[in-house]
Design a protein that fits this description.
Layout (H helix, E strand, L loop, with lengths): L2 E7 L5 E7 L3 H10 L3 E7 L7 H7 L6 H16 L4 H11 L3 H15 L4 H5 L8 H13 L2 H58 L5 H15 L1 H20 L1 H12 L4 H23 L3 H10 L4 H15 L4 H8 L4 H13 L2 H60 L1
Antiparallel strand pairs: 1-2, 1-3
Length: 408
């Protein structure tokens, strides 16, 4: 009998991991659900398997946000019209252009036909459907408002897509300028400086310090380009492995929040994502502790996620949400006031949506100023490069010209 690794959350939102022997992953999901646990990941330990789930894990192909948004919109329309779930998913599996999503939906249909709930059927496909996605489906099924769950998810995914687009648009110009600088340095080191170096050596003139630096840099690049390439690749691989560890990921995510220009923007986007997801789950009826646990995983930043988990622990010890949020030191006073009013009035979910809108407005303002803030830095950098090249290349030419005129 094969062995399966599983991850699940209890009613308090705590993550539970372990191994169980069973004939299929479906029986593991049924067993965990019977114990009051919500499975989030089930995978067979052995390497050999013929199931669709493991095939997706071995050759993962990401499903884009646009495809998930279309899926949620279509499911909302179909479930609202009263079309049976299995029939609706079968139709979407045939019509979607994503092979990964189609394979996942076909497997979900098979699990639904075997008697599992939709949330339990989606749990083995955590590469396609996030923990937040599955939790919302679980709540929608239990409350009889599955179509509203799909509506919530489509709105949430659209907000995520719009935020990513705005960030890409704001960073497009700085990225293009940076790439242009790198290309210019490459051309100068490999093509321009070697030509001038041969001229300088032919005349045997004493070179200025700036020119000596340029020539030495060019010679080192030409002779040891392979060493530089190995160093760059090694640095990238080492950095990726370091950030893949729990400690490295925590340190890097905290560092990103403290960057001079992009740090505040990154923090605003992260907190907007957390508050919106948290409010969405509260509005759907997810218990506070479980909503915090899931929102911490969906925040997209492990440092912020760790602070949110501290909030969860504080609430479990008996503190209210306001005091727990204040102790994290990641929320502004205005947000803390909104949380306080929300707790007093019982309208925490709607006020958290306003908090998310506030963070979105702040992020929009920061995005608009991002290019304005980076542009002077890029101009100064370009000017410094041009100055160094001008001093290093043209000063010797002027000296040689002056010497030739003197001899004449």
């Amino acid at each position: 009998m094969p062995t399966f690794n599983y991850k699940a959350r209890n009613a308090a939102g705590e993550l539970i991991e372990g191994e169980l022997d069973a004939s299929t992953a479906e029986s593991i999901a049924v067993d965990l659900s019977g114990k009051g646990l919500i499975p989030t990941h089930i995978a067979q330990v052995s390497a050999a398997s013929e199931t669709n789930v493991l095939a997706l894990e071995l050759w993962p192909k990401k499903v884009s946000l646009d495809e998930l948004i279309i899926f949620c919109r279509q499911m909302y329309a179909l479930t609202k019209a009263g079309i049976p779930i299995i029939r609706a998913i079968k139709g979407l599996a045939d019509s979607t252009r994503s092979k990964t999503l189609s394979t996942s939906l076909i497997d979900i249909v098979e699990r639904l036909e075997s008697g599992l709930s939709m949330a339990a059927s989606m749990q083995p496909h955590n590469k396609v459907f996030s923990e937040l996605f599955i939790a919302m489906i679980h709540v929608g099924e239990n409350t009889g408002r599955l179509e509203e769950a799909f509506k919530y998810l489509s709105d949430n995914l659209e907000m995520e897509r719009d935020t990513r687009k705005r960030v890409k648009q704001a960073t497009r110009y700085p990225t293009m300028v940076f790439v242009a600088i790198m290309i210019a340095l490459f051309v100068v080191n490999f093509l321009v400086i070697p030509q001038f170096d041969s001229v300088f050596k032919r005349f045997g003139a004493d070179l200025p310090f700036a020119t000596q630096v340029l020539v030495a840099t060019s010679e080192f690049t030409l002779n040891y380009w392979w060493l530089l390439l190995i160093a760059m690749v090694g640095t990238v691989i080492s950095f990726q492995r370091w950030t893949a560890t729990e400690q490295g990921r925590l340190i890097w995510d905290r560092t990103k929040l403290r960057l001079p220009i992009a740090g505040p923007l990154y923090e605003q986007v992260t907190l907007s994502r957390f508050t919106r997801n948290f409010a969405m789950m509260l509005a759907a009826g997810v218990p506070l502790i479980q909503a915090l646990a899931i929102a911490s995983e969906a925040a997209g930043n492990h440092f912020v996620g760790a602070r949110i988990k501290e909030m969860k622990s504080s609430i479990e010890r008996g503190e209210n949400l306001l005091r727990a949020a204040r102790s994290t030191e990641i929320f502004t006073p205005l947000v803390l006031q909104m949380i306080a009013v929300g707790e007093e009035t019982g309208a925490l979910d709607s006020l958290l949506i306003e908090v998310a809108d506030f963070y979105d407005e702040e992020a929009d303002y920061s995005l608009k100023r991002l290019s304005e803030s980076i542009e002077p830095i890029l101009i100064v950098a370009m000017g410094a490069i041009v100055l160094v090249l001008a001093l290093g290349v043209f000063l010797p030419i002027w000296d040689l010209g002056s010497a030739a005129m003197g001899r004449g």
